[in-house]
Amino acid sequence: MSSFFPTRGFLGTGATFAADINLVVQLIMGAALITGLVLAKQKRYQAHGICQTTVLLLNLLMIGLVMWPSFREQVRPSLRKVVHNWYYAAAAGHAVLGITAELLGLYIVIVAGTDILPLWLRFKHWKRWMQTELVLWFIVLVSGVGTYYVWYMAPVR
Amino acid sequence: MTRKNGWVAGLAAPVMIAVMLLSAGSPRVAAIDQGSAANAEVKIDNFVFGPQTLTVPVGATVTWTNKDDIPHTTVSTDGVFKSKVMDTDEKFSYTFTKAGTYSYFCSVHPKMTGKVVVQ
Prior knowledge:
By secondary structure, chain A is mainly α.
């Protein structure tokens, strides 16, 4: 558990402070991505890029501060239980989907915002890639909320 | 509903689900048991430390055993002792050399609390 944060959460669910702050940040980031989608529809592409990239980088920070330390301490030592225990299955599934979404997002940002990659590594169908990323991100968000429920809310009901 | 609105509504659904889950809240029930021993055991079972309050003499060693199938820790509120994350059937022991009341909790699930009274 990250020592950056106090222990007890503030949402009254029995979760840790880190889990609560992560949930709130993730929900805000979900709302920000919808805002970014609206910006793109309005053809305000620069603002769209800044919005989505900020979310992507902030998520990277949350992975480093909250999700990875929690996964490393609690799930990784018990990976053998993933197939028959929801506590581990939810977190492992969320981790796989989340890493995929984060890497895909970074790839999109690099292609869209820089000229680092050679032509053969760059995509052309922007809309399709970004829509795929957005849908994947929200699947990850749902799985993250599910993990929060399984870890902190279901056990104390 | 237009196609654009449908998209936005679909993406907003997880946020609404989370808000509903959080607003449902959770019950807080704690039964307090008493125990007393020179070397004592505390079982962690079904998200509860049992007994929740344990009275032991100075010098006693208390051993916590995780009987749950998910990880737990035992961490003193005052920072006197701190276990690593315990998997199923893993144990953590601490010897109390000074009298006093030691409150502790699980750092993974902070709602789980217990107390050791050393006399």
